[in-house]
Design brief:
The structure holds two protein chains of two kinds. Chain A is mainly alpha-helical. Helix content of chain A is about 60%, strand content about 10%. The relative contact order of chain A is 0.08. In chain B, helix 7 (about 165-170) packs parallel to helix 8 (about 190-200). Classes of the chains: A mainly alpha, B alpha/beta. Chain A: Keywords: Kinase, Transferase, Ubl conjugation pathway.
């Protein structure tokens, strides 16, 4: 939590700077559709854990679910979009990935749960590039891994009886050829 | 860490902490099949199929796989062929394994439920040629983006060949609206079949046909043809007509034929080999050929030392920047033909010389290369198949002398006969050949200009 407090302060400082910038621009641009394209503009999102976050428009643009909202509603600064399936922690991770231009190195730092939750979030928010990125990252984690590892990764409870599993391994024996189970 | 701005926190801290510490949940299992299929499709088919034993909900997830289907039995076929056991035993083992592989392939194809598939690759002994039509049908049903059928790794000379009947079935058009890449090796398709693919695959970009004896005539044309890469290798085409606005690269090895490059405005890279290349070298001033050769930036040619001697009265091809010569070299023999050919390319900046050793011949002692021109633009020289042969040394040294701006000489221990191998095989061949190559290269060292880097890969 301390970490969050610190960075909020840093963000606050940045915010005043950006506000100045925004004000400067507002004189030129107008606040309608064209104004929305403005760089540095932020959109307020409420996450599943009730946190309201301001997110840069360039990132929000990748969230097609919100784009449809924006298209439909006459929006102004005070409008807040609820994203009820995404926690603030995951939203922060997503922002980091987008800003890091989807570098697979970044994905290596994510925990298994984070990977899965980002995939779910990417699907919900309809972020195509993020979805592609995170699906690839998950595939990289589980490829060439044992059945047990994959079960553990997805948190799957094995509900096959021993006989059923053995039978299934026999049916799909070709898939298990040349694999060392460890 | 925190990228977004938190401007309001309505929830007490305690709840937030529990939220962040989510227990391991099988969250993906509750998601639509397409999402899991999407992840599984990024694995190999085998890996995806192994998820069937995870739990009952996962049992059939793999059947929504829509990635690249790759059935490759070529290595096994190759190993079996070189096995030191009786021929009959070998045949029995081969037939048993082939049938098992085929039944697996059919089982998988039947199991898959997706309406579309990234790609299909089958690389094995063809066995029953009628299967080809089934596979092409499957590829069409699944709307694949890449289709790669390679039957060049056969156990023995094929018993059955593609018959006229099969060719008739194949030349009825298969609707493949998404097909971008089509590779057919040792499928022995006819010109009509290739033309029908060109007509029924509107987004086809890469077409590679290898080892087809039946392509006598071929017209590469069509309204809005997207074709960018055309490769006709080990084919013996008598009449070839190309009218392709978007064609960027063209490659042909085979016998001589009558080729008409009618419209190829985007063509920048061509490669020729076999007897056709020999014809081309003697007829470079031919209006049609000259038009193509003078247009391209990258040119790859094969030189047969056994045929013909010095090439004379060559036109100057000033547009060629990147020249690759595959030289079938009789070891010890002179390289006058290569030297004379080089005079046509004064503007090259990259030169690749690939020696391909044929028989050892009588030694041409004291052969002098006598390169005529300077190559002021030549920056990089790449050599493979070099064997410390006195004529090879003489050729290379004279190139060093005539290239005042040469930056790098790269010697590759891997000869061009291995270029088709997979990266790991290539790496291991390089490793075993490296010491020998370093010894070969020693003979060049004292002649390399001080400003030039000499690298053994």
């Amino acid at each position: 939590m301390a970490e969050r407090g610190e960075s909020s302060e840093a963000v606050m400082l940045k915010k005043t700077e950006e506000e100045k910038l925004r004000k400067g621009k507002m004189i030129v641009g107008d606040e309608s559709k064209a104004g929305y394209e403005e760089e540095g503009k932020k959109v307020k999102l409420v996450t599943s854990d009730g946190v309201t976050m301001e997110v840069e428009i360039s990132i929000v643009k990748e969230m097609e679910i919100i784009q449809t909202f924006i298209g439909a509603t006459d929006t102004d600064d005070s409008f807040i979009f609820p994203i009820s399936n995404v926690s603030s922690h995951i939203l922060n991770q997503i922002i980091e990935l987008v800003k890091g231009e989807y570098d697979q190195e970044l994905a290596k730092k994510l925990s298994h749960d984070e990977l899965k939750e980002i995939l779910v979030a990417a699907n919900y928010l309809n972020m195509k590039t993020l979805f592609h990125f995170i699906a690839t990252a998950i595939a990289n984690v589980i490829q060439n891994k044992s059945v047990e590892f994959v079960r553990d990764f997805f948190g799957i409870v094995n509900d096959f009886t021993e006989e059923e599993e053995a039978e299934l391994r026999k049916t799909n024996a070709w898939a298990f050829e040349g694999v060392d189970e460890d | 860490m925190t990228q977004g701005k938190i401007i309001a926190q309505e929830m007490p801290r305690k709840i937030l902490v529990t939220w962040n510490r989510i227990e391991k949940r099988d969250i993906l299992s509750t998601m639509p099949n397409e999402i899991i299929a999407n992840v599984l499709s990024r694995l190999t088919l085998k890996e995806a199929a192994r998820t069937s034993v995870l739990s009952t909900t996962w049992r059939y997830q793999w059947t929504y796989f829509n990635g690249d289907l790759d059935f490759d039995n070529s290595l096994r076929t190759l190993l079996l062929r070189h096995e030191h056991v009786g021929l009959l035993t070998k045949c029995k083992v081969f037939v048993r394994e082939w049938e098992r592989f085929m039944s697996r392939l059919q089982h998988v194809m039947k199991s898959l439920k997706c309406h579309s598939m990234q790609g299909l690759r089958i690389c094995m002994d063809m066995g029953n040629p009628w299967k080809v039509t089934e596979w092409v049908n499957f590829a069409a049903e699944k709307n694949v983006e890449t289709l790669d059928l390679d039957f060049s790794y056969n156990f023995m000379e094929p018993f059955f060949e593609i018959s006229e009947n099969i060719r008739n079935v194949l030349s009825k058009s298969f609707e493949m609206r998404a097909l971008r890449v089509l590779r057919l090796a040792s499928v022995d398709v006819s010109g009509e079949i290739i033309e029908s693919f060109l007509a029924s695959c509107p987004v086809l970009e890469t077409l590679c046909v290898r080892g087809s004896k039946s392509v006598m005539r071929l017209k590469v044309q069509g309204q809005g043809l997207m074709l960018k890469h055309l490769e006709l290798v080990e084919c013996h085409i008598l009449h070839l007509h190309i009218c392709a606005e978007n064609l960027v690269t063209f490659s042909y090895t085979g016998d001589y034929g009558n080729f008409n490059f009618e419209t190829v405005p985007s063509l920048v890279e061509v490669s020729f080999g076999g007897k056709y290349c020999n014809y081309l070298l003697s007829n470079m001033e031919d209006v049609q050929l000259y038009a193509v050769l003078s247009q391209v930036h990258v040119l790859k040619l094969e030189l047969f030392i056994l045929y013909g001697g010095i090439l004379e009265a060559l036109p100057v091809l000033g547009n060629v920047r990147h020249l690759e010569l595959r030289i079938r070299h009789r070891c010890g023999g002179q390289l006058d033909r290569t030297v004379s050919l080089l005079s046509a390319f004064p503007s090259i900046s990259v030169l690749k010389i690939k020696f391909m050793r044929t028989t050892i011949w009588e030694l041409d002692e004291g052969w002098k290369a006598n390169l005529k021109h300077e190559y002021p633009n030549l920056r990089e020289l790449e050599v493979s198949g070099y064997r410390r042969d006195s004529c090879q040394i003489e050729l290379l040294i004279s190139i060093f002398k005539k290239a005042p701006n040469l930056n790098r000489i790269v010697v590759d221990p891997l000869t061009s006969m291995h270029v088709q191998r997979s990266p790991d095989v290539k790496a291991s061949i390089r490793e075993t050949q490296r010491d020998m190559t370093i010894w070969y290269v020693d003979a060049l060292k004292s002649h390399v200009p001080p400003s030039t880097q000499l690298i053994v890969l």
